[in-house]
Amino acid sequence: MVLCPVIGKLLHKRVVLASASPRRQEILSNAGLRFEVVPSRFKEKLDKASFATPYGYAMETAKQKALEVATRMHQKDLRTPDVVIGADTIVTVGGLILEKPVDKQDAYRMLSRAQRCVKAVAIRHCSSQAAAHQVSEFYEETTLNVSPELSEEGCLEYIPSGEPMDKAGGYGIQALGGMLVESVHGDFLNVVGFPLNHFCKQLGELYYPPRPEDLRQPVRHDSIPAVDTFEDLSDVEGGGSEPAQRETGSRDEKAEVGAAGQATAEAECHRTGATLPPFPTRLLELLDGFKLSKALLTACKLKVFDWLKDEAPQRAPDIASKVDASVCGTEKLLDVCAAMGLLEKTEQGYSNTETANLYLASDSEYSLHGFMLQNNDVIWNLFTYLEFAIREGRNQHHRLLGKKVEDLFQDAYDRSPDTQLRFMQAMHGVAKLTARQVATAFDLSRFSSACDVGGCTGALARELAREYPRLQVTVFDLPDVVELAVHFQPAGPQAAQIHFAAGDFFRDPLPSAELYVLCRILHDWSDDKVHKLLSKVAESCKPGAGLLLVETLLDEKREVQGGLIQSLNMLVQTEGRERSRGEYQCLLELHGFHQVQVVHLEGVLDAMLATRVAP
Ligand SMILES: O=c1[nH]cc([C@@H]2O[C@H](COP(=O)(O)OP(=O)(O)OP(=O)(O)O)[C@@H](O)[C@H]2O)c(=O)[nH]1
């Protein structure tokens, strides 16, 4: 018997479940699906830190599981399956991704907290060419609250049952673990092994796409009762709420679903007087964000990633003694780093992930260690005054330092070589990340000389020189910056193309050049100073000279909110601000630069190239 007609659509296809999970198999066969089981050999070891969200990580793992099985079957018996289903489960607690416990202690830690269970499912529709496979994907999220009465003894009694160890989140809700869970919001089967309801809906969308006339009907949101509210909602206008965490569909659809869902929820509340609003998971994750940042910064400050670089896994007590810290504190910090995807935790101990080796060890080529320390030692402290910055509309160095600050770069901090070097290390790390993109954003081959105004360690100058072998680049910066820049100059073929010149770009004449570069400089300064600097650059330019401006343009569409955070950052730290594309365009034109072209770079930066016209 097939209750759900879409399951029948798969009956004559070769369906493969790429999973070893017995629960997943049971749920799907109970639903009448016929399939073969070929557990995936894909190692669940993707770098968590390289995904913007936990969902992204789980989805990529699910897709890779299905791909590995489809490819292997094709290679082995030359008969490609029609459909391969891959799934992955993660559990998130306050933004941290947890999977299956690696040991009993880990299980204990997982058990004591409220969790979100996210299942990502990838349905791979195969053809003989892997590249031509179509993949439909969705994920389903269920929120669980572990009973607040769950005692330490209760947890410790449960763990030896063996149930937690092969289960994401550390419990089997369908068996003994059910006793630990107080409430479930969302699809129960999703926690147990597979989101059957959402799967059927997804198949429905694939096999019965809506007719155009259906699309013109007002949206109707069918109800899927959460397990804690098994009620008939059919008397509610609009038919009840869409599952809160469905993530497929366009933004507009989501907005509609959200609005309709809210109206329904209100109606429902009015009717029963008892229904709880959705659990504010995202909100709580945002709240916890500062704790995660501080954990990352602290691990950098303690040089945890240096001690683990290129080493065999080490246990918490070893690391604790190296970083001169308590074992219990170190262990907690290491666990959070592992959950953030910065460390890997196995039975042998902790080791760096690739992200940590690449960016967090202090001696790696693309190290952001200096930038982390700058954030820990300076920016973090400034942000504690955010409320004042918002009220007063200005930076907060005076509060942090307890004195009036006239010029941020000249007299804000003690300009000891150490402080200066730390600042330069921070700038160097950030500049190296983006220098290649900046250097290649436009064709600059018509210029034979460039001046990188405020070019600090010469990281961008080096990329410009590498990209344009006939270009001579002058890095113009304050005398003490130029003095310390030698620490950052690797010997190499570009060295002969790069020169350093000391001076203050507000007071001293600029070195002459055909191309001027202002990379993340203007955003530090007030409008008055920006005019002053741009007029100096304009005066130094002959007609046809170029100005390469690199900044974060406000109002540009971006995937992440980084641009807006950057804007807040400027308020707290500098006397400047981020500006919009229109504002920069006006500024450039006012100072005689026209033909403005804009290129978006990866991350939050944008590059603009303008040409000086005859006055
Ligand atoms: O309450 C419960 N919570 C979780 C489970 C089981 O946990 C695992 C989740 O892991 P994953 O999705 O990665 O699947 P695997 O078992 O590793 O098999 P794959 O071969 O597909 O990677 C899953 O088995 C759930 O059933 C549970 O049983 N109860």
From TrEMBL:
The keyword Transport appears for this protein: no
Region (Disordered): 230-260
Top-rank taxon: Eukaryota
Biased composition (Basic and acidic residues): 244-256
GO molecular function terms attached to this record: nucleoside triphosphate diphosphatase activity; O-methyltransferase activity; protein dimerization activity
Keywords per UniProt: Hydrolase, Methyltransferase, S-adenosyl-L-methionine, Transferase
Gene Ontology annotations of biological process type: methylation
Any single GO CC term annotated in Swiss-Prot or TrEMBL for this entry: cytosol
Domain O-methyltransferase C-terminal: residue ranges: 383-593
Subunit structure: Homodimer.
Protein name listed in UniProt: Acetylserotonin O-methyltransferase like
Species whose genome carries this gene: Cercocebus atys (Sooty mangabey)
Taxonomy of the source species: Eukaryota, Metazoa, Chordata, Craniata, Vertebrata
Gene that specifies this protein: ASMTL
